[in-house]
Amino acid sequence: MSQDVVSQILKDYIYKTLTEKKRIDGRGLLEYRKIDIQTGFIEVAEGSARVKLGNTDVLAGVKMSIGEPFPDTPESGVMTTNAELIPMASPTFEAGPPDENSIELSRVVDRGLREGQVVDLSDLCIEPGEKVWVMFIDLHILDYDGNLFDASAMAAVAALASTKVPASQYELGDDYPLPIKNWPVMTTFAKIKDIIVLDPGLDEERVADARLSVYTDQDGHIRAMQKGLNGGFSYDEVKEIVRLSKEKGKEVRKILMDAVKGGE
Amino acid sequence: MSQDVVSQILKDYIYKTLTEKKRIDGRGLLEYRKIDIQTGFIEVAEGSARVKLGNTDVLAGVKMSIGEPFPDTPESGVMTTNAELIPMASPTFEAGPPDENSIELSRVVDRGLREGQVVDLSDLCIEPGEKVWVMFIDLHILDYDGNLFDASAMAAVAALASTKVPASQYELGDDYPLPIKNWPVMTTFAKIKDIIVLDPGLDEERVADARLSVYTDQDGHIRAMQKGLNGGFSYDEVKEIVRLSKEKGKEVRKILMDAVKGGE
Amino acid sequence: MSQDVVSQILKDYIYKTLTEKKRIDGRGLLEYRKIDIQTGFIEVAEGSARVKLGNTDVLAGVKMSIGEPFPDTPESGVMTTNAELIPMASPTFEAGPPDENSIELSRVVDRGLREGQVVDLSDLCIEPGEKVWVMFIDLHILDYDGNLFDASAMAAVAALASTKVPASQYELGDDYPLPIKNWPVMTTFAKIKDIIVLDPGLDEERVADARLSVYTDQDGHIRAMQKGLNGGFSYDEVKEIVRLSKEKGKEVRKILMDAVKGGE
Amino acid sequence: MGMKSDIKLIDENGLRIDGRKPDELRPIKIEAGVLKRADGSAYVEWGKNKILAAVYGPREAHPRHLQDSTKAIIQCRYNMAPFSVSDRKRPGPDRRSVEISKIISEAFESVIMTELFPRSSIDVFIEVLQANAGTRCAGITAAAVALADAGVPMKDLVVGVAAGKVDDTVVLDLGKEEDNYGQADVPMAIVPRTGDIVLLQMDGDMTEEELFKAMDMSMEAAKYIYELQKDALRRRYAVIAQEEKEEIESIEEGIE
Amino acid sequence: MGMKSDIKLIDENGLRIDGRKPDELRPIKIEAGVLKRADGSAYVEWGKNKILAAVYGPREAHPRHLQDSTKAIIQCRYNMAPFSVSDRKRPGPDRRSVEISKIISEAFESVIMTELFPRSSIDVFIEVLQANAGTRCAGITAAAVALADAGVPMKDLVVGVAAGKVDDTVVLDLGKEEDNYGQADVPMAIVPRTGDIVLLQMDGDMTEEELFKAMDMSMEAAKYIYELQKDALRRRYAVIAQEEKEEIESIEEGIE
Amino acid sequence: MGMKSDIKLIDENGLRIDGRKPDELRPIKIEAGVLKRADGSAYVEWGKNKILAAVYGPREAHPRHLQDSTKAIIQCRYNMAPFSVSDRKRPGPDRRSVEISKIISEAFESVIMTELFPRSSIDVFIEVLQANAGTRCAGITAAAVALADAGVPMKDLVVGVAAGKVDDTVVLDLGKEEDNYGQADVPMAIVPRTGDIVLLQMDGDMTEEELFKAMDMSMEAAKYIYELQKDALRRRYAVIAQEEKEEIESIEEGIE
């Protein structure tokens, strides 16, 4: 049987289950899988967090060093987000330079962190125009079982929220916790035929027509969005997802904040 | 029918027409296609020109900024020529780093600009050994219908001749036109069996045995040459082409100069 | 006949010969091929040596210039070893960036030079933290007939031992010979079934089960080792090879030192 | 979004820095069939943006492992010319271009009848010759016309358009200063007949109400841009028809 | 080896900087079956090293020109996460990783029954999440368990372990300071049942006697690590058996 | 061409900086059959230039999409060793090498009987071990001998040689200072029997008369270089014949 036929059968099966308001792993349509967040996993990094979203497993590490600011933002630190879809995580990931999927993932997560103002980059300025903190957020995808976007976004924020600025290493006083200004959360929805589900698992992602990720902040504002996959949404569907993202974002934000506090 | 047979039939057809002193598009053997030169097409560039040679379409842009000179030429500005054979222009062009064809094109055009001394690079020096103008000439090939060499050379010179040095942006006084010292022109001839034609079109280029490009300056001196394709020329053919290149170069130079003045 | 069958027949033939204490090219089991060392082949380099080990042909060149030290070793010069398996040398070598074979070769040779302390890198310091000699050792493999490791190691040491530090070019006094502190030698053994041979030729390398290279210094100390190929050694085999490497290293060292003196 | 600045982006009359009203587009010109070699092409001027789009295919997808035995694949390449922006851009794809190429490819998937061309590739090239905010939307708009010009079977055209927020005001089609110093941007790609949204991104800071207002503006503007697209194609078909007519006449003359 | 330093690596009692005796390993924890997607996996903590290994295959080798018609090829990729070391490491393979990947691939060749799987590839991924000296040996140890967890037929496991020389003393399993300021390091991979040495490297300065003493220590330590590997696999099989039992029971319940 | 300088390149006697007359070549030595592994090879010393050329093939062209079903393709790779020039050159092809490789490949196309070997590749490797002006011409000259040594069927050899202009004088075979401070350089590749010009480049500033005078000089010099090439091949065949004779004798001895 061709791959294509298999995928059509899988889609029919998943959809049929959804029409009964259930999902193939037993969840409700708008229910997240189990979220497990562990901070401080990598002692040699300034901050780190490992997030398991069901079996999806993402490790985020934050490294800080001192460098020069960009000429056009002399009073801002430098923050870079990078994601590696290492071949360990899935038979479909290949070694090599970042492909379009890992570039999209890192750019969307980065956009949420930046627009959602987790960190005020001016807090990372040491001497305007001369010396600033340069911060790398590296997302290492260990196991891919669907919805890398939300797991990665959680891991990035949790890693940042557990970061200690290594001031003493550069004789700039004692180390101190990186100031966190906001807790943006990404929530991702998939559309399978005419049904919308939250936090798609791997098989759901495979058969989904379209995907929409929405980053909301702690004030319920929208900070970033990204549509994915080959299909479209109606305007009403977009509206519904935006509304749900605020509510679901609140749930995740609580889990995130508790995990970071628990990790301290 | 194999590609090869088609190409042999095409060659026979083109050659037969040539023996009647005509070309498949109706031109004379030593006649250029219609030359259309438009300067200033890209307002955000310091200089630009779009050249259509028949349906061959090349856009040249000049960007200037300030940088350091090379250590061994402390009193010279830096000029770099780059050509991109973007896949938009032909089904045979592929995305990716420059291949041997685009490298040859940019190097031959560059050689003509440099040896033909369009610009005196010492005019681009601001502070010897410290600060000079760094100039990029980018050739963007939009539509490929044969003879990229001549079209690109024209576009490069026209773009340079329409360039305003952005002095005010660096607080170095008012912007001023880039001083042009010479107007070198490249003329390209193809040999199909024993017949020499000027400005080969795409089909002619495909079946040609050899190609010779000659850069002449306004004094009729030879400044650069490049033989291409898999065949050879007799010494007498080379001599004939060199003589023709001076005459044909003069015609093109006039069109170029008129176009640049018209664009002012 | 498949490549595999051919290779099995070759292996059987080579092994049968070995059981008679002979090799297919007539050598004894622990005998090197003819070693020919010519220094000073490349006048434009600061040092150079061409080594022929039978038909294996390696050209090493040393280039020196002035640069900055690494921040963590401010009083040490910088030494880099690079090997190019150019496609000229073998039908199995391909053009392109260094593959795992050339990377392994250059790293193993480098390890021997570094750990074997041919050069005391602090001798290459000009001004601590500011200016040091930066030295490139480039190994250009011209003809591959087996045992690149030993040929390359010899070529690197001979090239260094014939190097003149180009002090005058930087107005740092007269040129002077690079001080050589030690003469480490790599000896490589291959295991074919249960028989160990020294200096494997190309066909022996092709059928060998395992390979062990040992770098010894002039005091008979072990300075670097590298096991290669898909099989293993017993502990006793390793011990035997280590013992032999000291004895054989002494022989090669004498040839090396004589060649360098002869080249002066 | 959002370098901070003292620039006032909305004046006392509610007009924008280039004089536009909040729901006003920049001037848009569309021309179809502008290149010889490509199977289809279009040129779009949108404010100071200058964009060329070209289409090749359906043609055999290569390398072969990319082929899909059930449908054509769509490969879009969004590229900026080195001279298209203030500081020269190094040639070749950067991370931004890779992301934009991916989402534009996805935007066209549900519109093109890919199932008609198994094992094929439909290649869409978008070249930004001059960039001035909104290039991805202008590029989509151009690419849709180029696809139609190439005769690629589609359920409908696709329109790209953005809205956003500057000085706490929701506005349509951000210009360069608005993009640099504004508060939010929401690029969309819309299938006009069905209203389906096939590309949607957003960055900045918006309430739900602001977001929906911005999307409303874009949905409305899409109708107008759709007409411009169709008009360009109509002019193109007229030219082709005229050329064919002349060709037939010249053949007939030859016969007589 | 061997930045010079005044750090004393062996104290007056013959103990090492972290309190270990010369022939003492750092604490080692091994867990099998830790990832969902991979065919087999293992996690090793070895001192402060944190290493994941995953195995895919045997699966069709691609690109096809890599296929061997007589046996499976083994492709190992040793990789360090960017945050695994003090100064962030740029993603992607550096020359060190390429060499380590090559020799680890070779180390497993003679143990895996590759002849059973012509045209296949067995892919071994070793990810160093946190590095603290000895990552290649910890990686080999983890990879062997992951291969067994994947059900890849092997003649035996493989154990990675190193010994070396610090302050003129031969010691087992160098820690980070010992690695930085020591005199020699000898990483090995050992097939426990036969005692075969399938990976062997050395750098530094050792006499023959010191080298053999170091190798003796590693051969001895390999026996202990081998037990840890087997223990991890036993625990893993117990979990699988339990899961299967529960699954059968739930099916039986369904039938009743 | 042409850094400015006060160096006088032609003295009062009309002699050049290295004592040569205007139409005098640097000393040239050619040796055929210098490498074991390659199918054919040659070594050329030309002044201080030291060049190796090797040929592999005709062999199956790969990757396969490069194959031409009607003839062999010729792939030339001109490469400079890192230590071949004053400042170390980074390994790998730069833009100059790519261009030279292309035009040398084209130069050999019309001479090699490619139609005899469909789907094949004839690979020509030119390694510049030491560079001192004129490497592409010396490389072509070496490559032609290597092709003949490999037994590749050719209509004729090809000779590379350059002429140019220094201190307003037309001279043959520019040396390093002449190349750096001269006014023009005209490298050519000539098929001696027919006089066909299969490679021709020029840069600098020359009148038509000067250019033709330079070309005359090169055409003349090519005849001499052609003899050196043939002589090298003659010596090579003598060696091979001797080796074969000895081999036959040793076999005959074995029979007796």
What would you note in describing this structure?
The complex is a heterohexamer, with 3 copies of chain A (264 residues) and 3 copies of chain D (256 residues). Chain A has one domain: 2-Layer Sandwich (Ribosomal Protein S5, domain 2), CATH 3.30.230.70. Helix content of chain A is 31%, strand content 29%. Chain A contains 5 helices and 12 strands. In chain A, strand 5 and strand 6 form a beta hairpin. The longest helix of chain A has 29 residues. Chain A is elongated, with a radius of gyration of 19 Å. The termini of chain A are far apart. The mean pLDDT of chain A is 96. Chain D has 256 residues and is an alpha+beta fold. Chain D has a single domain, classed as 2-Layer Sandwich (Ribosomal Protein S5, domain 2), CATH 3.30.230.70. Helix content of chain D is 33%, strand content 29%. Chain D has a 5-stranded mixed beta sheet with strand order 1-2-3-5-4. A 4-stranded antiparallel beta sheet of chain D has the order 7-6-8-9. Chain D starts with 27 loop residues before the first strand and ends with a helix. Chains in contact: A-D, A-E, B-D, B-F, C-E, C-F. The interface between A and E is medium-sized, with 31 and 30 residues. Strand 12 of chain A pairs antiparallel with strand 9 of chain D.
Number of helices of chain D: 4
Highest CATH level, the class of chain D? Alpha Beta
Low-confidence stretches of chain D: none
Shape of chain D: globular
The oligomeric state of the chains shown is heterohexamer
Class derived from helix and strand content of chain A: alpha+beta
Q: Might you state the CATH topology name of chain A?
A: Ribosomal Protein S5, domain 2
CATH superfamily of chain D: GHMP Kinase, N-terminal domain
